[in-house]
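If it is no trouble, can you show me the amino acids of a protein and the tokens describing how it folds?
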Amino acid sequence: MKNIILEMIDIHKSFGNTKALSGISLSLEKGDILGLCGENGAGKSTLMKILSGVYPKSTYEGDILINNQKISFKNTVDAEKNGIAIIHQELNLVPNMTVMENIWLGRYLTKFGKLNKDKMNKETRMFCKGLAPHIDPTSKIKDLSTAERQIVEIIKAISKDVKILIFDEPTSSLTEVETKKLITLIKDLQALGVTSVYISHKLNEIFELTNKVAVIRDGKSIGYDSTENLTENKIISMMVGRDLETLSKKQDYKPGKIVFEAKEYTAYSSQNPNIKTVDNASFCLYEGEILGFSGLIGAGRTELMTCIYGVYDGKYTGKSYLYDKLLNINNPQDAINNHITYVPEERKLHGIIANQKISSNITLSILKQISKKGILNLDLEKKLAQEVIKDLKIKIPSLESPISALSGGNQQKCVIGKNLLIKPKILILDEPTRGVDVGAKFEIYKYINQIAKDGCSVIIVSSELPEIINMSNRVIIMSEGKIQGELVDEAITQEAIMNLGIGS
């Protein structure tokens, strides 16, 4: 007999005239790990916000049943009392407080009217013992790694006797090793009877971890099945509403002439000038080439690229040459003047101005060209933005909408489009598809291949090995600030990259 712990029945949710969810239903048995898939904007987070009490019953239609009893939540506290908690992508912890203080925040244990820190520390250690014995309850959150902070969020939920735990893109900021630890932890929780909902764009994680998959598209239920009955291509086609052609490496690429050379770059940490973040790195880039940069987190890839682009925040030395001409790049404008452009790793921090309209963000790189005597040509701005939106298939409400209103994938397309308006000879992409859904990722890949075919030379820095392997004509691998070697064509394999990445 099935032990149904959760049912969501015919859920509808609107924001004004926009229908966000249209009759979504799903059910979970105790111990299930459900993979919830869909493109950005499909309605996944909205559905989970209803389940976790972020959106109260009065704001949606439909029913939630826990253990066959109809339940409605006024807020997240109500949901937690019923054993439901959510681990958001943006972690909800207080950096200057300790692990123990964060876990008991808002429900401190007291004794004779005073905080009972001894008991809270003891119970925190007990919770940590099974999940993360290395985490000290007295450590401050700011001193923990991202993965450790995530574990603290999970311990916080477990301490509230959670029965259903929701993970919203939990590995977007984790290394491969940290991701494996998190997956093991979720499986351990499953063995303890905890039911999980796992939202992720990374289908390899969905197949490794889940036993059921639900797919949402445009606020509607598209598919619900056992993971073992599905394939990646099947899930992708359900997510985007069409079959995607297989992503493959560029065909028949032959190196042209050398466009760019970086020679003897060495960079020093801004926190500790005795530490080298880049150590005597040199490489060349060919015309129309897609050059991948791989390596473990902290290998020095981003630091090398920011030196070349003139934005590194510490001391560095090195020389760059474009068509054998020595460049003098001290800031991004110098790089742009030489038709070198850079899409940064942290899109929200360095790639967009969140509260400004979409058209302004897209044309930000060419303000001088579309202005006369300091006055912006709004018609030209609109025309160029519309061309970028059409070329990159960017989905927008209107050009006047703030860019923050867009999904992560559409924001990233805007950032890429902004950089392409300067007509670069060299385009550097740092983690170009991080936090981007499968459909948008595929569109970005297609566009990268097209601009390389048109003669632009592309550098891709990525922590995703499938991305590096499938997109790159040549791969340079870094470790501890040094270039360890390069791989070409058929030699580009996961094993070869990992061996060089760990310094073998």
Q: What stands out?
A: The CA atoms of residues 362 and 414 lie 6 Å apart. The chain has two domains: 4-240, 287-312+327-501. The chain has a mean pLDDT of 86.
